[in-house]
Amino acid sequence: MNNLDIDYKTPECGDLYDELPLWSAPFGLLLLERVSLKAGMTILDVGAGTGFMSIELAQRCGAAAKVIAVDPWESAVARLKRKLDHLGLRNVRTLVQDVATIDLPDSSVDLIVSNLGLNNFNQPETALRSCFRVAKPGASLCLTTNLVGHMAEFYEAYRSVLVELGFTGRLAALDDHINHRTTIDSVRTLLERAGFKFVDAVTRTFKERFVDGSALLSHYFIRLGFLPAWKAIAPEGAVETIFAALELRLNAIATDRGELSLTIPAACFQACKPDE
Ligand SMILES: C[S@@+](CC[C@H](N)C(=O)[O-])C[C@H]1O[C@@H](n2cnc3c(N)ncnc32)[C@H](O)[C@@H]1O
User: Fold this and answer.
1) For residue range 23-40, what is the model confidence (pLDDT) as tens digits?
2) Residue 74: what pLDDT?
3) Cα separation of 199 and 205, whole Å?
4) Whose CA is closest to atom 25 on ligand 1?
5) Looking at the chain, which residues constitute the CATH 3.40.50.150 domain(s)?
6) Among 15, 64, 20, 17, residue whose Cα is nearest residue 43
7) Which CATH number fits domain 11-147+182-205+266-272: 1.10.3210.10, 1.10.10.10, 3.40.50.150, 3.30.70.100?
8) CA-CA distances (angstroms) from residue 123 to 110, 119, 140, 194, 209?
9) Parallel, antiparallel, or unpaired for β 66-70 and 42-46?
10) CA 20 to 30 Å from 27, out of 46, 96, 202, 263?
């Protein structure tokens, strides 16, 4: 038993109390509902970020479990390390690495998890092949991702603005951007190409709600996670014009519908490495 007292009045507790980005939460809860938990497993968390999933699994699977959190994002892993110290968790190891070249032996992990990693890997197939290499025969993989259909209401408005302002030459770029997200079939194919046996996929849809387009476009996580790619669809020199028109269009939609509600389709995939 970990007997370390945690005092909410300490500066560390207030500083580290927020466990995860809100965007990650519905996906993470879905993963935690589905993943099979066993004592004593070696678990690899791919694209761990600030590490809530590693911390959660390290505690839920007990002290005999070992968790390896891998992510090339140095400052996020540094925050994870501070959380581990604060919580007195000794069964999580961190690696600031690209999973494609991860420094782990072949056939060394029992479970691989990844919350919202897949859409962020430059080379998802290479990343999954590396996961396959380090997985023991019989190991499980459980990952979540958002799917094509993500924020469909936003992209519909973006398309109509491009058409109305005469930027139809950018519609292909918009479609490429929309379709870079996965589908159930595309993830299944990726998993199978990497050598995994597909087990199942469950989907869930949730909504992100805003009073209007101005609120959406000013939200910190939209500016951090989505806006740069949205702006890259617009032709250079016309970004401001297009985004001003888009903001007005989204605000008009919000007035019509009473709010701006964006659909987020989420999926949790389970797969395994076949026994030899
Ligand atoms: C959307 S964040 C998700 C973070 C965390 N799992 C969560 O749910 O909050 C995607 C993460 O994948 C990481 N990532 C991107 N490419 C990676 C790679 N090649 N290997 C490992 N992690 C990678 C990013 O640095 C980032 O932390």
Assistant:
1) 999 999 999 999 999 999
2) 98
3) 21
4) 73
5) 11-147+182-205+266-272
6) 64
7) 3.40.50.150
8) 23, 9, 21, 12, 32
9) parallel
10) 96
- Pick from 42, 57, 243, 52: nearest CA to 135: 42
For residue 273, count other CB atoms closer than 10 A to its CB: 24
Q: Quick one: which atom of ligand 1 is closest to the CA of 127?
A: 19
Distance CA 91, CA 155 (A): 43
Distance 49 CA to ligand 1 centre (A): 5
- The C-alpha angle with vertex 100 and arms to 148 and 233, in degrees rounded to 5, equals 35
CB 23 within 8 A of CB 225: yes
pTM above 0.70, yes or no: yes
Q: Which amino acid is at 113?
A: V
* pLDDT value of residue 85: 96
Q: What is the pLDDT of residues 56-104, one digit of tens each?
A: 999 999 999 999 999 999 999 999 999 999 999 999 999 999 999 999 9
For 215-249, give one letter per residue: b (16+ CB within 10 A) or e.
Answer: bbbeeeebeeebbeebeebbeeeeeeebbebbbeb
The yes-or-no verdict on residue 2 having pLDDT over 90 is no
pLDDT per residue over 159-208, tens digit each? 999 999 999 999 999 999 999 999 999 999 999 999 999 999 999 999 99
Give the model's confidence band at 1: pLDDT under 50 very low, under 70 low, under 90 confident, else very high.
confident
Strand-pair partners of 42: 66
Instruction: Round to whole Å and give the CA distance between 162 and 233.
Output: 10
Pocket of ligand 1 (CB under 6 A): 20-21, 24, 28, 46-49, 53, 70-73, 76, 98-100, 115-117, 120-121, 127
